[in-house]
Amino acid sequence: MRPPTIVIIGAGSAVFGLRALAAILRSERLRGVDLRLVDVDEPALELMAAAAETMSRAWDSQARISATTERRVALPGADFVIVSVQVGPREEVWEKDWRIPLKHGIRQPYAENSGPGALAHTARNLPLIMAIARDMEELCPGAWYMNYVNPLIRLSTAIHRYSKLKVVGMCHQLLWGYAMATALLADRYGITLPAGLKIDTNHENRRFREPLMQAGLQYLDIKAAGINHFSWIYDIRDKATGEDLYPLLRERWLHQETMAGFEPLSREAFRIFGLMPTPSDSHLCEFLPWVHDPVKKPWERYGLEPQNWQGNHQRRADRRALARAVVEGDPAALERVRNERSEGIPEVVEGVHFNLNTFVQQLNLPNQGLIPNLPADAIVEVPGVTSGLGVRGLGVPALPEPIAELCRRELAYSSLVVDACYHGDRDLALQALLLDPMVNDIETARAILAEFLSEFAAYLPQFA
What we know:
The protein is of the alpha/beta class. The protein contains 18 helices and eleven strands. It is globular, with a radius of gyration of 21 Å.
């Protein structure tokens, strides 16, 4: 078969783009790929295109690589369109998503996927996400829309609801579940845990979590499902022997005090609801109504810290430096990016294009019975298989009803947010905000919404 045609929109990203390019160009099956890079940031695009050319030569990928700032130039004939974009300067707008509600008395632990800040995050990104979809409907209607943009549930829902495209939401959050489980079972696999272990998403903690993620993928097999950034482990086994490790995991975390302070919110949720959550405290907290009380300050009890904005800037700078080292042909830099995780791109592209029947641990797809006690039209997260039939989720048993209800509440709320942000409906946006688990006052909701619409007006044409 001919190699596939892959378009990456947002290819100039030093964090995602470099990792995505390396995953494609190191793949033996994707030799000769038609790889089209798109970004509106021309200097960033030029850097990543040069890095791609260097990787292609070093690894003999024989790729045809092109770069453009105009996505409509790249889209005709595409088989897969990978989208990783951000409207507005990433760290600056994210910090405002957190600080504006704080000014009105609501302290969000994270402010990306749920909570008031996620409404603003959805509203900014949704017009661009749908503009890409419209161009795809015209220029490559049979292509898969591979969405990597948060809030993943909401933006994937918009594509599914308001376009005719095939969409799959892609995320690597399950790796945090692997890291947690590995930390809890460390002695079984001869792993020594460092002092001060933390695995939250802040940049400075990658030195702790990434080795645990790699070890987890080596030793463990986890099956999890739910909704993105809020999934739950159904089954965890030793990868070599098939032994069920759930009993040991429960004993270690819930009944021994040595790890009692490790990811304490996740531990509490595990204790109460009976299944282990996968996203770690830094994302789990977004979906729970019990972490923002201004009197009891539960964020102190659970050690829930906001994003380290400066750390995110440093992470971006570090990745830019790595990309420049790749362009210069530094062998250590090339080896480093060659060994980075794939972000699921080859697993989906190769599986679908070459009919490989590839198992993928984490896919976000329209439910259609995959999780029987969640809404049929919702975007849910399940394991699945990629083949000539496309990207297909695997059905799992019903979630325990309390967990399912937490998911249903988030999905109902997110559905309203999507409609409000698609139509630019201020009344519906207020109604949606009042369903947020962190909001308990009408005037507070009105004030936050008004400030969001004013502060981000330049990015919100639908509300003009």
